[in-house]
Amino acid sequence: MEDVLETTPGWLSRDELEQARAQMPILYVEAVPVRVDESGEVTGIGLLLRIASDGTVSRALVSGRVLHHERVRDALVRHLEKDLGPVALPRVPASPQPFTVAEYFPTPGVTPYHDPRQHAVALAYIVPVSGDCRPRQDALDLVWFTPEEAASPLVQQEMQGGQGVLLKQALAHVGRLL
Amino acid sequence: MEDVLETTPGWLSRDELEQARAQMPILYVEAVPVRVDESGEVTGIGLLLRIASDGTVSRALVSGRVLHHERVRDALVRHLEKDLGPVALPRVPASPQPFTVAEYFPTPGVTPYHDPRQHAVALAYIVPVSGDCRPRQDALDLVWFTPEEAASPLVQQEMQGGQGVLLKQALAHVGRLL
Amino acid sequence: MEDVLETTPGWLSRDELEQARAQMPILYVEAVPVRVDESGEVTGIGLLLRIASDGTVSRALVSGRVLHHERVRDALVRHLEKDLGPVALPRVPASPQPFTVAEYFPTPGVTPYHDPRQHAVALAYIVPVSGDCRPRQDALDLVWFTPEEAASPLVQQEMQGGQGVLLKQALAHVGRLL
Amino acid sequence: MEDVLETTPGWLSRDELEQARAQMPILYVEAVPVRVDESGEVTGIGLLLRIASDGTVSRALVSGRVLHHERVRDALVRHLEKDLGPVALPRVPASPQPFTVAEYFPTPGVTPYHDPRQHAVALAYIVPVSGDCRPRQDALDLVWFTPEEAASPLVQQEMQGGQGVLLKQALAHVGRLL
What we know:
Four copies of one chain form a homotetramer.
Chain A: H1 14-21, E1 26-36, E2 42-51, E3 57-60, E4 62-65, H2 72-84, E5 100-105, E6 113-114, E7 120-128, E8 141-145, H3 147-150, H4 153-156, H5 163-173
Parallel strand pairs in A: 1-7, 5-6
Antiparallel strand pairs in A: 1-2, 1-4, 2-3, 2-8, 5-7
């Protein structure tokens, strides 16, 4: 890789994050929380329920930024714990290979994914969780759906920015999209 | 994803890139150029030959940043064309799923990959090329190796920052690491 | 693997194939022929058109058995040439990793895939083809669809045994299932 | 798929298995048992220790046939339980996508894998196990190795038929092959 620059590690202030978002793709991880049976087959999909300030109901996957000097798998653990609580017992995959890469563009239509704030590139993983999920922070609740329900128009239309597409890709990857 | 910010697309000046590198992971793509036979089996691996200002010889994979508002596959095409020339005829994969994700840390030892300048996260792809490769820019030459040669200590020790490890992962992925 | 037996390579007669099908899973390969643009993005899906003796129209992926002492990639080349003709220029993937494994059971409902004749396990691959496709043998024609058309109910209902599901999995894998 | 035959499900006698092995590829599953830490990173690899009748020591992955009318994931569970005991708590992957496909040929040199008895095609999976492993049947013991040890010449030379190559592919897939 090209030239060598002096760098000082650090964190982003709100202004700096805003500036960075205008200038480069921001690395995200996204996790599809699933319940599996003894043979590993997916039996349920967990979606976060969010209610916006205008009362709009939406459902979301676990998602968040990878920080400077943070490994992708540590970012996954951190966001899963933040969104599902401390006793969800998520099983982060052994392989760093994501099942897909979702590219959220600020301009709609470039890809199936859209984020008005930024160009975000998300590494997406299926994460079985075997423990008790107790969402915190801004998530109101975690609701489990069957694979059939998760792919249904009803659930799909409650997902934003293309996360419904990503969810269907996850279902296809585990052989549960009919 | 959290709050919504107003952003203005733009490019990074040298100073801004330096600043960003100190504050967030930088998204890269890496490509392993390969020759394949009629049945798709890998018969050759293309490595860029670089000679540093101090005369050190090193071999490298095709690698570079993903820019703001650029798709991953467009970044791959751009860097392949930059490094292999305009008539290499690279076959960028149909799927966005990389064969692995290489996390280059400024601190050695966190992962097998190391980049003193920055925390870079690279999506890695195998890219068959069928055309004529004519390296430009800072690459002196492109040399083709057999899978056996590419995994040999001689070639491995000429690769830097853990790219030799990434090359072996690529060989394993195509079933050509013995 | 357990004990060592003396074996003599050979081919299956009709009776022997029938007997084998009643007793063990039969290994298949399946290929989803696609057209891609310069950046590797899938722009078209090729489906074989078949008309059964009762006049029923059906559309199918490229599919067939792996023979004794035949490599998976050679089986792919053979079936692609058989179904798409000699100048289709298929690009069999460099990696043996299939995008999924489709398990066709003689009993409906065990998996999304069903084959009344046998228990077939198919390794499924995306195969870009850049040449001219001229179907032979029992296929009447090869028709190209956009990703949107391929996932539509109209096309899906013309596919049998769960191949429509497999097609949607392929579209999801290449990021083209909306 | 071609014609429709009447079939009767059943099991193979020793003679029938011998006959089938001479005539078609036999479908196998192979599992690489691993220990993972909280972030999913592989910390240990479990290898079965076997002592042949001539006293030769060998190490092996979990491996076995897929039976007629048995799902791949059920075959994985069955062979893992057979080789690791009933309380190993294996986590069979949610996705049917294997990390690679290993093709064992009766003729050495066609691929890196060799099985003098048969042409076997194995779907290979990484399987985290969190419980207590108590090998039974013909396995004497299960020994845990670090990723570095597993890739070392010492361990590699105790593996047969190319399983050492498959083990290195597994290590590469989880980012633990240096």
